[in-house]
From TrEMBL:
The keyword Aminoacyl-tRNA synthetase does not apply. It comes from Sinocyclocheilus grahami. Residues 380-402 have a biased composition (Polar residues). The lineage of its organism: Eukaryota, Metazoa, Chordata, Craniata, Vertebrata. The gene is usp47. Belongs to the peptidase C19 family. This is Ubiquitin carboxyl-terminal hydrolase.
Amino acid sequence: DTTSAKTINERLTLNLPASTPVNKLYEDVAHKAGYVNGTFYLTWANTGAMAPLDQASEMSLVLSGFEAGKRNFLQLTDKDGEQPQITSVTDSSGVDDSSQGRFIGPLPRDGTVGCSSDYSSPSYSYSSILNKSETGYVGLVNQAMTCYLNSLLQTLFMTPEFRNALYNWEFEESEEDPVISIPYQLKRLFVLLQTSKKRAIETTDVTRSFGWDSSEAWQQHDVQELCRVMFDALEQKWKQTEQADLINQLYQGKLKDYVRCLECGYESWRIDTYLDIPLVIRPFGASQAFGSVEEALQAFIQPETLDGPNQYFCERCKKKCDARKGLRFLHFPYLLTLQLKRFDFDYTTMHRIKLNDRMTFPEELDMSPFIDVEDEKSPQTESCTDSGAENEGSCHSDQMSNDFSTDDAVDEGICLDNTSSAERVLKPKSSLTFELFSVMVHSGSAAGGHYYACIKSFSDSQWYSFNDQHVSKVSQLASVLKEYSTNAYMLMYRLKDPSRNAKFLEVEDFPEHIKRLVQREREMMEPKTAKMLT
């Protein structure tokens, strides 16, 4: 602090995530120094000739010239020759503002820093005692390099179908230790996200339930990988409960992996399930990337021809023949996850790389063109269904037909009801329209970077940016679609089905066991809060 507002220059230290916007940095410094925000400048130390940092900028620190994982030295200076205004000693609530420490520590296991791959020193935990953002939503503290976890957790919380199902599940404490129960810790976290008055809350209890030690928080993981691990853990815990098939009901789709002889039409196949669809950004060996998600989806189901040395041995012809190999979507899940494969390997440099090619994605995605694609090149095709328990088989047809089965038993559509396969109601293809509600973004390189998410609230149709502990409104969806077309990493869509969508609006009342959990959390937090304030 080099201003003339105080007789003695003092040194202030803040430990912040690399994702912190510059305007939030100004707020934090104002609070720490006891000045009214907007009445001072922040400039780089020993570079007085440079312009001060833009107080209105929403750009993250790491993109504004700060080095993640290292000390960055700034000067707090007078603004236009006027010294900063000093804030009142007490705030409107009557609490001594100076007692609200901006960070507590040392807590190296729960330290909050940016997701930098070269950070190795301990830090301090950023205090979440501040009031929640004006958006009404609560952020998540970055433990160390857990921004990828935070973006996924916020997306799951903002998914009413997932959140409400989690609330309806009742934990039996007599049967399991709550500390190691992933569903219980997720439910507890969601309750805190919905009821807490804090600006941000910790995720250490959730990661502890994963079985992570402190070093795990310092490792950058992949969002898609974490999502699959978490879903698998939930399925294991929910066996023999009403939620046993929840993940499959919401997220699981089905596709057919087939190989068909081009001489006789004989086809061998197997049915596979998926929780997300991986889409290539740039085809192998190509210099041009796919321009849109729709183009990448078309490439995903485009069959390849097996000929020459790659010919397929046909069981019917009893010889090697040219064949066609590909994938067919049999049905799409209610919640559709698209993973854009932005991380690749450069065989020229033998290094892992990040692809920042522009790939557009729509607000509404029509999936009907991808579930029944005609193949006019083949003279003969098959007509077969899922073989049930074995989930694989072979069959053929000598009739002229399109490349997909027209058998009524083939599961082509969306399974909407919690019923058996025989009772499922198939949606017509014309209704396969999905609406975008979450964009998980990765900024940075393959060596290190930062994850955050832009998510649509289904309660008010407003988009919000969830960037660790910072939650803010997104002014226009158009800016999301344009700005993140070069770094969107995972897209979440929900089927537009008014009858089902309406069932999952915000619940007006918690189940009784959730109310007890809320009360217990409040009783636990009140003495802690009182002690911190005094």
